[in-house]
Amino acid sequence: MTQRHILFVPGKNPKPPAAQHKSLLWRTLIEGVRRVDPDVANNLSQHPDNFKLIAWNYLYYKTVKDINRDLPWIDALINKHGPSELDIKEAKSSHKIFHQIIYNIFDHFPFLLNFFPGVLKATADEINRYFNNKNNIACEVREQLKKELRPLFDSTDKILVIAHSMGSIIAYDTLWELSHLENHPNKIDLFLTIGSPLGMNYVQRRLMGNPYAGKKKYPINIKNWVNISSTGDITALNHIFANDFSEMRKLNIIDSIEDHCEGIFNFFHNEDGLNCHRSYGYLVNPAIGKVIADWWQSYNISEK
Questions:
Q1: How would residue 189 be classed by pLDDT, with cut points 50, 70 and 90?
Q2: Can you tell me the distance from the alpha carbon of 296 to that of 230, in angstroms, rounded to the nearest whole number?
Q3: Is 55 contained in some domain?
Q4: What's the pLDDT score for residue 304?
Q5: Structural domain contains residue 302
Q6: d(CA 196, CA 212)
Q7: Cα(293)–Cα(39) distance, rounded to whole angstroms?
Q8: What's the domain count of the chain?
Q9: Phi, psi of 51 (to 5 degrees)
């Protein structure tokens, strides 16, 4: 029978063991959908096996994160139903704006990173390890998603790929390879990117397909693309993908590209304060919940 599948590609940094991480992501995803449509959330919650985590992080970092560090903050997130006035003020603060300006400068002049050692330089080096495919690590990481997508492409099943942060780079490159190197003819129904850096010049120049022109430059196996970024999320720099990837529409290889980037707040907190980028905070947001709920109920599919 035709089924619906949600594949989640997480962002960088070590994560909890895969089963525990998947459970936390599923919990916050269901909560986000519940805040929009409790009936859809109830139906979705009965299909946990239709949710797959692409657990590439251990392969990349060779370590895991202690789940106990996240649990109390996720509990607090679940019990909080929107950003506080202080959250909104912090997300819009001059401090955040300053960091966005700095990121934008480095995005256009990456050589300057060599003169500013620290977290930003370390992050760039970490991402470059992927782009440079050191020790074949990028191919191995992409293979984790390919293993899930190949059999689904050979079926009539419906596919939603949710990709957070660096995971959106991995997912995009994987879809490009499946399009042009493996020639899979089917498409995913929806590519949902959250907190994605795919709008950055630094990233776009290094994406699979960038050396080419025309259809070969882009994945041709995406029906619809929705991009969502929260106010104050510095990683999601230059977040209007409908402009950056507009040629995909002109080439008629994708039906739609939508950006939802105004008035969306990620109110995840941990011991360091507000974090506008964390995946859990994105997933509980009704803006993401609505996209998932609409996709889930858009197909009249027989359930197992």
A1: very high
A2: 23
A3: yes
A4: 40
A5: no
A6: 22
A7: 10
A8: 1
A9: -110, 125
